Amino acid sequence: MTVTLITGANKGLGFETAKQLLALGHVVYIGARDAERGKSAAAAIDARFVQLDVTDDASVSSALATIDAAEGRLDVLVHNAGILETGLDGPAALRSFDTNAVAIVRVTEAALPLLRHSSNPNVVIISSSAGSFWAVTNPERPEYGLQLPLYSASKAAATMLMVQYAKSHPGIKFNAVEPGTTATDMTAAFGVGRPAEESARQVVRLATLDRTGRTGTFQDEFGELAW
User: Fold this and answer.
1) Spatial separation of the C-alpha atoms in residues 15 and 44, rounded to whole Å
2) Taking Cα atoms as reference points, which of 70, 77, 84 lies closest to residue 31?
């Protein structure tokens, strides 16, 4: 059985990704900051719950220790937790980078010992084409008109972290994905996005790469993205 942890998975894209991976036979741990919501979400789809606040070192350590005790390894890690700040000030910047970028380091470092026990370790980072320098400077791309500086900057950092981890840990696949604009609580104010079920397919595609799968890539549903 493939053991998978998805951060921020009690709703939206993470929850739908959990459903699809469960259908493929994965043992899925739904990581969520709110214990009641996380337990409810896990129970609804017969997943497992682990309390996980990606901005808190103690919470992250405890979550990975729980998985270690139960499974002894981790095969797939999906960095899904994220926030979208529309303001622009110091506290908003700290929140954005802590959740969207620093948390990738926090959770990955705690997960590495378990990933090394897997025969096919795979890490997927939910990034965004809004963090692509190529896309936001290309007048022909929809990202060109986006006014989301903190989200874009933190997602650019997330993609760079993916590249650096892929280079530093060649035995573990690290890939980033632009899942497509998705209708979630995060995008509700903009009134845009397709169903989470559709976008989750892109996450699942990278989460289920075999041992020969590529590493160090940033992809969307059409292939590799310039960034």
Assistant:
1) 10
2) 77
Start-end of H helices in 24-132: 35-45, 57-71, 90-97, 103-115
Domains and CATH numbers, the chain: 3-224 (3.40.50.720)
pLDDT at residue 196 in the model: 78
Nearest to 222 by CA among 192, 196, 201: 201
Q: Is 210 helix (H, G, I), strand (E, B) or coil?
A: coil
Place of tokens 């892929």: 166
Compute φ and ψ for 217, nearest 5 degrees. Answer: -115, 155
Q: Quick check: is 151 catalytic?
A: yes
Report which DSSP code applies to 212: T
Could you give phi then psi for residue 184, rounded to 5 degrees? -135, 180
Q: Consecutive sets of 10 residues in the chain, 227 residues long: mean pLDDT of each?
A: 97 95 98 97 98 98 98 98 95 98 98 98 96 95 92 97 98 94 55 72 96 96 90
Among the listed residues 29, 144, 151, 165, the single catalytic one is 151
pLDDT of residue 188: 45
